[in-house]
## 1
Amino acid sequence: MRMMTRWMLALTAAVMIGLPVLADEPAAVEEKPKGPEARFGVAPPAEDFIPDELQEPVSQEEINAALKRGVDYLLADQNDDGSWGSPTRTKGLNIYAPIPGAHHAFRMGTTALALAALLELEPQFPETSEAIDLAEGFVIEKLPYLRRADQTAIYNVWGHAYALMALARMHDRNADDEKMQSQIADLIKQQFDMLTRYESVDGGWGYYDFRYGAKRPSSDSISFVAATVLVAFKEVSERGFEPPEAVRKRAIAAIERQQKNDFSYLYGEYLKYSPVHPVNRPGGSLGRSQACNLALRIWGDEEITDEVLKEWLERLIVRNGWLDIGRKRPIPHESWFAVAGYFYYYGHFYGSMCLQELPAEDRAQFAYPLTRMMLERQEKDGSWWDYPLYDYHQPYGTGFALMTLSRYRVDAETASE
């Protein structure tokens, strides 16, 4: 009787939670589709669609005017030493930033993003040349001394990564300057060394180490930090500078460990036992899936197909509210899905790079609505910003947005030809 009772209880429990129950004859198993397109498990792609009204073309005059206003903002906001940003405009809810090293990292990352944007737009706006010369001088002088703030704050990885992006563009601009080419090459190699030195023990990179504060950071890899570095690695590799192979492979493996079935990504590997934590859900991953998918694709991951990129660009459009609600909130991760404001323009920037991976005929459906989002969010002074970070947020947000809007503009023109 006791054994029968236990068996009945087990059967009841199995039925209630959906486990299979043995029968006399094995039930036919329906064959499931294979491949990355079949892996979307949280919300089928068919549930999302881009309304027709969002796909109306945006005039090139309007886009160029917005770019001009953003460029003018950066030119007016540049510091005398060629950098952008400062540790001023403090508030009662400042992000953890041990002085002075955290601000060295913030300023270098901000300057590199602003410089990269101006370097891309210099052919269209030649009035940026003087500011670019000044900013290049700042990077060459200060970048070799960038280090982590202390054993806990490793914000310098952002400075190293975005400096590589700027250096790639500086390399193109100064192709005929032998001295500058040599300086750029030395700096790129030094960034490889620094990113190897500050690599997390599990591969990839984080920006905090609250465990042991070891010489080699003991923090877990953060998915989108690894993606940021890998994209920068790819850009300099295309100029002939190959990053350390073992470091690159460990970073790729770290991102892959954090990938979920629907191509959303854990915020960091420390959350691997909380896969349905809000920040790890698709809405929480909306600002980093673009970067992680891009990083894996450009380094040869065949699972990141055009369909995967299109699905997440569609989500970036139709579910943009989850990112937008977090925009400009002073406390990180206080919004729905634990979204932090600083993911907004970051996510759009890497989304624009994903867009360029697609065939030209597939781009307009995404480029037009995404362009409109950038135009609508430009501030009255010409800047863009998404999170109040001392005096860094406007120049870094503007750098992101200018490069984003420029890529959307090019793709819109291509698709309309």
Note: The CA atoms of residues 157 and 195 lie 7 Å apart.
## 2
Amino acid sequence: MEHKAFRRFNFRVRTKAAAFMKIAQISPLVESCPPTLYGGTERIVSYLTEALVADGHEVTLFATGDSVTDAELVAPHDVALRLDPAVKDQLPHQLMMLDEVKRRAEEFDILHFHTELTHFPVVREMSRRSVTTLHNRLDLPDLKPFYEFFSEMPLVSISYSQRAPMPDQVNWAGNVYHGLPKDVLPFTAKPKERYLAFIGRIAPEKGPDKAVEIATRSGMPLKIAAKIDAADRSYWDEAIQPQIAGRKDIQFVGEIGEAEKGEFLGNACGLLFPIEWPEPFGLVMIEAMACGTPVLAFDAGSVREVIDEGRTGFVVNGVEESLAAVRRLDSLDRKTIRETFERRFTVERMMRDYVEIYQKLLDQRRATSASIPMSATARKGSAAEPAGFPSNWRG
């Protein structure tokens, strides 16, 4: 049902400005593209892939076999790894996919990785035809020496705040905010109900406990749509479930997919986003905006880059400020929120930003190749070619 709905998206994208390209999109294998339920990275990979195909590029998507796409699909595993009970360790499957990408690398102008850091040792020698979007937090201490070690790899951030912990040597190719298809979530001018919404993961950094406190103290009903990972099961059992058990004003609805998300967010008075970590982007914020629903978010990570204060939501510091902001949610114009989404956070804009980056990288590679004398090419072999990786790696 979810995937059929996805195929109806009409991107109407034609940039015309950029040349035709052969592009590989390499997705994590945790979820399908698009995911049936939770899964921000794979959802963005899916939206970008379909927009690039609609724009006339030849795209190959490396993703699980249950993905739905108009691109060529290369599937190293039949179903999303998270949903396959036979999979106990995801890393071997990811590495097998990377080996296939390496084998076929010369077929593509651009290899666009969304797999964080696992591919770096594999593609280092062909870094000039690759770009990596970093979707996760970058403030963990072990990451800084890693990115220093692989400083030549072209990287894309999804917010400028995400870059803060990174070393100065990093090769930033650009910053691209996420985008959604305009028709993926319907605009709701007037909600049918009065409740606050929380959507995401049940995890301490996402702040579901703060959402419960804000709703309770403000006297507003709360609906929670979230997945519970095995790693966070004890947090749910000990910190969240006891707070909401038996309460009629707080409803836990579990994981929801795209088909349910529009109604869930559209009928809410506001989305609570009480994060307590450096959120790299926060896809649910623009999903709420697409529905016309204002966002009440804690001031952390990318929040101030996504939310226009007093226009699409309110940025607050802690629960006390949230209580005052809840009373102001109705003062925001839902049509204006939707218009802001269409101006800033559509898949068309995201796709154009990435195509610009691809073109810049292609131009740089061609310029570098043209500057290498023939004698150097003869001495160095394919390391001096546009492909940028040793000849003994050819499939």
Note: The mean pLDDT is 89.
